[in-house]
């Protein structure tokens, strides 16, 4: 006997998570039990820019008094809308077959060459979020 929980939010659903970290790819969000959530730069409140020194995204919010930089710091709670989902087949593949014209010598490995370290392990299920609507983004932006 076993039990399991299925996490599959519907498109356009609004969820709340925490910022795990920021990168040039966008804002990476975690829900504690699920970490593969990305809010890409084009889906952030605009105008947005990435601060290389701080490694955070910020929203340049305009008011009558001028522009204010609202930082998206790690650990902050963020409300986002599910815009898309990405499924990647991560099933294991069979071993590579040795080429018939080069038989293996005694003591020589027939294993395929190691993957280059640049290869990135992909998540089987990723959510793509958006915060470019009023009321979405850091909860602290909308509390007052």
UniProtKB/TrEMBL annotation:
GO terms for cellular component: DNA-directed RNA polymerase complex. Keywords: DNA-directed RNA polymerase, Nucleus, Transcription. The keyword Manganese does not apply. It is found in: Nucleus. Its main location: nucleus. SUPFAM superfamilies: Nucleic acid-binding proteins. Pfam families: RNA_pol_Rbc25. Residues 89-108 have a biased composition (Low complexity). Residues 89-121 are annotated as: Disordered. Residues 13-142 form the RNA polymerase III subunit Rpc25 domain. InterPro entries: NA-bd_OB-fold, RNA_pol_III_Rbc25, Rpb7-like. Belongs to the eukaryotic RPB7/RPC8 RNA polymerase subunit family. DNA-dependent RNA polymerase which catalyzes the transcription of DNA into RNA using the four ribonucleoside triphosphates as substrates. This is DNA-directed RNA polymerase subunit. It comes from Xenotaenia resolanae. The lineage of its organism: Eukaryota, Metazoa, Chordata, Craniata, Vertebrata.
